[in-house]
Amino acid sequence: MMKKHYNETEFRKVINLLVNQEQEVLRTKYKDHALQGNWKGFRELHVQSDWLLIYKIDGKKLILTLVRTGSHDKIL
């Protein structure tokens, strides 16, 4: 993350929102949405305009799997 000059504070903020299951904030501010096709079962959000995070939440007990992060053209 540091090599790409990503904002670590913003990343930590998003992780805290995920852990606390703040879906409304994630959906409205970070454009959180379900993915389709080969990525079905995963979700994506925009940490910043061209900084995406792909993740998966399993079950009622939170098991958060951070899958990929990077720019749109690099990760999809």
TrEMBL record:
Keywords (A to Z) from UniProt: Toxin-antitoxin system
Gene3D superfamilies attached to this UniProt entry: RelE-like (3.30.2310.20)
Active site: residue positions: H72
GO MF annotation terms: RNA endonuclease activity
GO biological process, one term: mRNA catabolic process
Coiled coil, from the record: none
InterPro entries, alphabetized: RelE/ParE_toxin, RelE/ParE_toxin_dom_sf, Toxin_YafQ-like
One Pfam family, short name: YafQ_toxin
PANTHER family recorded: MRNA INTERFERASE TOXIN YAFQ
Protein name (record): RelE/StbE family addiction module toxin
Origin species: Enterococcus ratti
